[in-house]
Amino acid sequence: MEVSELVLWIIAGSAAVTWIPRVLPLLVLSRMKLPEWGIRWLQHVPVAVMAALLAQELLLTDGRLSVADNAYKLLAALPALAVAVYTRSLFGTVIAGVLSLAAFRLFF
């Protein structure tokens, strides 16, 4: 299989476009002294992003709100949420979510 120079440039450009937005804020913010309110605000970003991603996956079907179509996903999210709150383990949360979703799909 032969890879053309254009494909290599596209891969390099894609890598740069992915890498720069991740590294640039880290480099800039690591040299600055952030105020206490800014640090507190930034601590909420991961939770907000995760909530937005989960809400979209659990509540929307084909771009519209549909709780009835996603009932098994919502039910499977409850054990995963309990494991997340109790253990604070990402691995445990994922395993609980996958197993409960598989069980709901198998039995219901």
Automatic annotation (TrEMBL):
Record keywords: Membrane, Transmembrane, Transmembrane helix
Transmembrane parts of this sequence: 6-29, 41-60, 80-104
A Pfam family recorded for this sequence: AzlD
Source taxon at top rank: Bacteria
Protein's recorded name: AzlD domain-containing protein
